[in-house]
Model the fold of this input.
Amino acid sequence: MTPVHNVLVVAQGTFVRQLRNKILYMLIIVCTCFVGVGSMYHILTLDSEVKLMRDLALAGISLMGMVVAIFIGSNEVGKELREGTVDALLSKPLGRDQFLLGKFVGTLWVALVNIAIIGVGFLVVMSFYEGKIWVDLARSVILNVFEVGVLVSVAIFFTTFLPEAVSAVVTFLVFLLGHGAHMLPMISEKADHMPTEVIAKGLYYLIPNFHHFNIRAAVGHELEVPWSYVGFTILYGLFYTGMVLSLASLIFRKREL
Amino acid sequence: MNAIETYNLSKTYDSFFFWKGRPALDRLTMAVPEGKIFGFLGPNGAGKTTTLKLLLGLLHPSAGGGRLLGEDMGSSKAKERLGYLSEKPTYYGYLKANEFLNYYAKIFHIGRAERKQRIGELLDRVGLAEHHQSKLKTFSHGMLQRVGLAQAMLNDPDLMLLDPLGRKQFKNIIKQASREQGKTVFFCSHILADVEEICDMVGILCKGHLLVMDEVHNLPFGQKTVLTLKQAPGEALAAIRRDGVDIDDREDTTVVTVSSGMDADEVEQTAKSEGAECVDKKVERETLEEYFVRIIQEAERR
Done:
């Protein structure tokens, strides 16, 4: 029984479960509508409907990724634990690590498909407007995918020892803090009290720095983001995801089911 | 060779942070030979499910250990050769019966064609062939138990761990698996008449302690005395009513069963002195259920 096969079986199971999740379809429809009604944006803006559409599409992709990562990431493991379905699954020759990794891959797979649906819709609409596909937008979407990967791993990490609702809230807090992580060194430096300084510094090293993944503003202003930056950020994302999943796996191995 | 071996297997749950509570399982040492049907009995909270979860690696033992089919309990190698039906058969409601079994069968690396054939056979065997396209969320508890048994047999296991078992149909499947295919079946049940009928061996657990474990025909069954009373007034029945005396008041007669270890003559005399007429007196072997109730009561009194 190869571990990769088992991971893929669990991932496929996760994907199939979410395919039947009606809320997800609603989200896709809403996000796609934002992009699809691009022809009306000129009513809201003066000659900058393309920029508005670009911003909205990237925001939609980011929002979809976040919702999938936090809610599905927390729900997938948490629900199996709560309902006891994990007992029968883990009585099969399936390692606990493989189960967690399968849930991670499956959730990421759901996020990727959702992002792809909105992304393709967006690119089709944009090609009508400008007749070209921007590489910068692709860079932003790629980084967004890796950001989702980090967030899914964080959500799964918390569900290994917290109830799913609490895990979702804590993951959302990590998401918010992670987007403000670049300000933490500044807070630490300017702090008057020792605890504030220590907490700010500790959080800076502990929580994922999602600010690195956010190049939407640069893309919005048509600034070119170098591929080397994208590459290093991807490496950071992979490293962070690997660390968090390893920790989650350690906790889950010890957990009583 | 033994299909199941445990030595001093113990489990104590943390009751409050790191404060240890009462042991759910206390130094369980047992061996179940291959090919046997083993009934694991005990009242609620005796530690039966805890034992099963420890064997499967879902719980971690506080002390001791065990082996399944010669492999470490909870290891993937052991799990490749066993099937498990959980106490609460909760499965994925959004999946159809055949999709659910297909999902689990993939973990065993069963090829597509073989999967399809085996799933069809198993659904037929548990009486769910007509429902193969129905979603599990529409299934009753009994149907979920049946689909649960089908998933436990997907890999044609050498050892089946079933918790609990209460359906007549299962009885035939278990007997067939053991007698015709040489499988070992370890199951928990509350229906002791079924256990007596199909089991080769039983183990009785109470408050985490194994009280008895033996072949069914070797169990030290006691003798019970069955008195048939006629025209027994209420005073007579009140006078003989006590632990170990079962009174079955029928239309014309009253059947009084006096457990092993109790003085049947004294019960008979008391009834007679209160005006009852004893028309029949028989000595019979205890049933497994009566034996079980007696030794559990004795254990709880200690």
About this structure: Chain B has three domains: 1-81+183-220, 85-156, 223-285.
